[in-house]
C-alpha cells in the first residue's frame, strides 16, 4: 500500500511567513498525541527542527512532523483557515474515521 507524505498548502506557508516563523528559526510542528474526545489529538506549535523530523518546505517556511506522528498524517493536508469563527491551522486527514466538532481530535 502506497502512502503519500502530508502536504502543506500555499495558504499555510503564507501564514507562517506572515507571523515570521522562519525569521525566528522556528517551524510549524504538527504532531499527533493520544487524548482528546475521539482518541487522538493534533498538537500544533512553533518549534525547532529535530533530527528525526520530516521537513516540508515552501515559501521559505518549514512544517515539521516527527517520525511517530508521520503514519497518522500520511496523505493529510495541512492548511490555514481564516473564518468567521477564527483563524487557525487545520488538518484534512483522510486516515481519520471520525472527528469531534472542534477539529483537533479524531479517531482511526
From TrEMBL:
PROSITE patterns, per the entry: HESB (PS01152)
Matching InterPro entries: ATAP, ATAP_core_dom, FeS_cluster_insertion_CS, HesB-like_dom_sf
Source taxonomy: Bacteria, Pseudomonadati, Pseudomonadota, Alphaproteobacteria, Rhodobacterales
GO biological processes: iron-sulfur cluster assembly
GO molecular function: 2 iron, 2 sulfur cluster binding; 4 iron, 4 sulfur cluster binding; iron ion binding
Residue ranges of domain Core in the record: 7-103
Name of protein: Iron-sulfur cluster insertion protein ErpA
Pfam families the record matches: Fe-S_biosyn (PF01521)
Gene: erpA
Gene3D superfamilies reported in the protein's UniProt record: HesB-like domain (2.60.300.12)
Signal peptide: none
Source species of the chain: Flavimaricola marinus
Amino acid at each position: 500500500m502506497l502512502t503519500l507524505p502530508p502536504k502543506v498548502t500555499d495558504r499555510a506557508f503564507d501564514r507562517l511567513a506572515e507571523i515570521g516563523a522562519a525569521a525566528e528559526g522556528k517551524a510549524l510542528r504538527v504532531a499527533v498525541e493520544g487524548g482528546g474526545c475521539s482518541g487522538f489529538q493534533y498538537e500544533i506549535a512553533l518549534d525547532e527542527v529535530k533530527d528525526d523530523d520530516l521537513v516540508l518546505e515552501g515559501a521559505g517556511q518549514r512544517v515539521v512532523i516527527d517520525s511517530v506522528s508521520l503514519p497518522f498524517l500520511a496523505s493529510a493536508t495541512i492548511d490555514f483557515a481564516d473564518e468567521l469563527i477564527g483563524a487557525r491551522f487545520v488538518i484534512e486527514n483522510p486516515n481519520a474515521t471520525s472527528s469531534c466538532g472542534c477539529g483537533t481530535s479524531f479517531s482511526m
